[in-house]
Amino acid sequence: MSQQIYINGEYFSRADAKVSVYDHGLLYGDGVFEGMRIYSGKVFRLEEHLIRLFESAAAIALPIGMTIQQLAKDTDECVAKNGLDDGYIRLVVTRGCGPLGLDPYKCSDPQIIIIADKISLYPAEMYENGLELITAATIRNHPAALSSRVKSLNYLNNIMAKMEGLRAGCVEALMLNIKGEVAECTGDNIFIVKNGKLSTPPIDAGILEGITRNAVLELAKQAGIETSEHPMTRHDIFIADECFLTGSAAEVIAAVKLDGRTIGDGKPGPITTKLNEAFRKLVRS
Ligand code: PMP
């Protein structure tokens, strides 16, 4: 089945799916997006993703021009049209075309784009053995400048940190906030386990409120694991028993080294494995 890309309610082949070079999404990163997984033909937590999308859009005063229910219907339709059982959805809303200046009020045609595709983020071997992280020198954007809860098209901050990781041979990098506290990774949230308790940085550490993060916190509570959201430093990760990352694309993946220090015994730990199994069950339920 050939790929069908949705733009404003119409479908195009990959070669014909285009936006203007005057689109402020391209010119200024003026827009918002979501990344979601398709499991067994169904988008995982579609409504939560769309609520986050609409909230991101509201925060930047970007009118989407349709309801959450309509966009949910179109997203489901796009998944069906592409015949994907398992895959990934990238939903993008740009400010649309305008003059070359910044003025968003001169843009009147937001572009709603839905791309359904296959995905493989990290090598399978890393899901078995865990991955290694470095701490990026690039500090996570200050949430008072642009709330990290807005999933905007401006990912340069994370991209700079990702480059640092890749240059050091790591597929992910840890980002700290301006206070030196742990924020998140470039495209994933981070968790640690210490003495059987699960913790993750709070939203006001300047992180994206991950849908997978929330799902894992719920699963941990259901499993009777004590959870907390509190500020942490790199030191907390160095001395953690276990560490793992969460994200729609990444799912749940253990991190076994940070800046050359082995975390715990250097293997995906029992709580990580338990939560990973529970997550895999949940997404297929
Ligand atoms: N943090 C950042 C910066 C991200 O880009 C992502 C991926 N969307 C996440 C965390 C994880 O969020 P989610 O679980 O909603 O995919």
From TrEMBL:
Keywords: Amino-acid biosynthesis, Aminotransferase, Branched-chain amino acid biosynthesis, Pyridoxal phosphate, Transferase. The keyword Nuclease does not apply. SUPFAM superfamilies: D-aminoacid aminotransferase-like PLP-dependent enzymes (SSF56752). The gene is ilvE. NCBIfam families: ilvE_I, PRK08320.1. Transmembrane segments: none annotated. GO terms for biological process: isoleucine biosynthetic process; L-leucine biosynthetic process; L-valine biosynthetic process. It is an enzyme of class 2 (transferase). Its EC number is 2.6.1.42. GO terms for molecular function: L-isoleucine-2-oxoglutarate transaminase activity; L-leucine-2-oxoglutarate transaminase activity; L-valine-2-oxoglutarate transaminase activity. Gene3D superfamilies: 3.30.470.10, D-amino Acid Aminotransferase, subunit A, domain 2. InterPro entries: Aminotrans_IV, Aminotrans_IV_CS, Aminotransferase-like, B_amino_transI, BCAT-like_C, BCAT-like_N, Class-IV_PLP-Dep_Aminotrnsfr. One of its GO terms (cellular component) is cytosol. It catalyses: L-leucine + 2-oxoglutarate = 4-methyl-2-oxopentanoate + L-glutamate; L-isoleucine + 2-oxoglutarate = (S)-3-methyl-2-oxopentanoate + L-glutamate; L-valine + 2-oxoglutarate = 3-methyl-2-oxobutanoate + L-glutamate. Pathway: Amino-acid biosynthesis; L-isoleucine biosynthesis; L-isoleucine from 2-oxobutanoate: step 4/4; Amino-acid biosynthesis; L-valine biosynthesis; L-valine from pyruvate: step 4/4; Amino-acid biosynthesis; L-leucine biosynthesis; L-leucine from 3-methyl-2-oxobutanoate: step 4/4. It comes from the Bacteria. This is Branched-chain-amino-acid aminotransferase. Acts on leucine, isoleucine and valine. Belongs to the class-IV pyridoxal-phosphate-dependent aminotransferase family. Its cofactor is pyridoxal 5'-phosphate.
